[in-house]
Amino acid sequence: MDWVDHAIDSFGQSVGTPGLQLDDQGCLSFLMEGERQLTMIDLARSGGDEVLVMVQAPLPQPQNMAVRAALQCADFRVSLGDAPQVALDNDQLVATLRIARSSFLHSTLEEAVHALFRFHERVARAGSMP
To answer: Regarding the domain delimited by 3-127, which CATH topology (the fold level of the hierarchy) does it fall under?
Structure first.
């Protein structure tokens, strides 16, 4: 078990999901609160040196405003800290942060997940404003 596996296991215990681990392809995905799906992909299996941490949630209504809000909230020129990469998957908004394997700790993972949850909350607030 390397430090990435250890961090994921420790994170799983802290959120009430003991035994959380990557599959043979270096991926894991599970539902969290508020219809949010948390996905992690360790790119080491494909020669990379990062772990992708993604939170996918239903796109707030009205969708056209939410898409615009997501793009504005993810703008690295105005975002505090690391801006997530965003994508749409049907009616789901996917926000992704990339974490260097060398920096991947339980605390780093926890901070990334919280940041992605806050990102989705900011999009929902901004997307509902006229």
So the answer is: Yope Regulator; Chain: A, (3.30.1460)
